Amino acid sequence: MTDPSARKLSHLDAAGRANMVDVSEKAVTRRVAEASCRLLCEPSTIARISSLPKGDAVAVARIAGIQAAKRTAEWIPLAHPLPIDQISIEIEPARDQVRIRSRVVVTALTGAEMEALVACSAAALALYDMVKAIDRGCVVTDLRLDSKSGGATGDYRRAQKSPVPGDNGRGE
Questions:
Q1: Which residues pair with 145 in a beta bridge?
Q2: Which of 19, 36, 50, 51 places its Cα 20 to 30 Å from the Cα of 77?
Q3: Sign (positive/negative) of CA torsion 33, 34, 35, 41?
Q4: Rg of the chain in Å (alpha carbons)
């Protein structure tokens, strides 16, 4: 792998100014990006997520993630608007957290990494909005790109790390 300090930032021009990347010379290919994050909450909050008065929290969060992915170029100033072929969001409540995963597929000139990350962010924020009345201490954490395929830079898959025993992600 190339030393990160040897590579240039793609969204800066030669003078160091923010610049939208010219993708017109790239090939249209199928590109897939997967991302994830976690919403850490009290176990009692997780137990109540499916029965909150605002409705089906998981379904609302899934729709929020899908909507946000489709509007990524409005959230991220230098992102290109993309014709999204498919978006899936998985939301899995566990004892003291909700795991959120997204998968975005495009056939385009550029990848869908930002769309996958925005989808996870919005889904987590929608869940936070629904539970904040009972648990303002929730934390959205570990937002990350898990994998991507397609395009000139090739495939990427994050190395899996084993979880730290006893770590609930809150530093406690």
A1: 35
A2: 36
A3: positive
A4: 18
| Model confidence, pTM | 0.84
Phi, psi for residue 93 in degrees, rounded to 5: -70, 140
Q: How far apart are CA 139 and CA 149, in angstroms?
A: 29
The full set of domain ranges for the chain reads 27-151
Each residue's pLDDT tens digit, 11-65: 777 788 887 888 988 889 999 999 999 999 999 999 888 666 555 889 999 999 9
- In the chain, DSSP assigns E strands to 29-40, 84-93, 97-108, 139-149, 156-157
The answer to whether 133 and 140 have CB atoms below 8 angstroms apart is: no
Nearest to 50 by CA among 38, 59, 37: 59
Nearest Cα residue to 104 out of 125, 124, 118, 121: 118
Region of 159 on the Ramachandran plot (φ > 0 left; ψ -120 to 50 alpha; else beta)? beta
Please name the amino acid found at residue 99: R
For 53, the token pair is 């008065």
CATH class of the domain comprising 27-151:
alpha beta
Q: Residue 34: beta bridge partners?
A: 103, 147
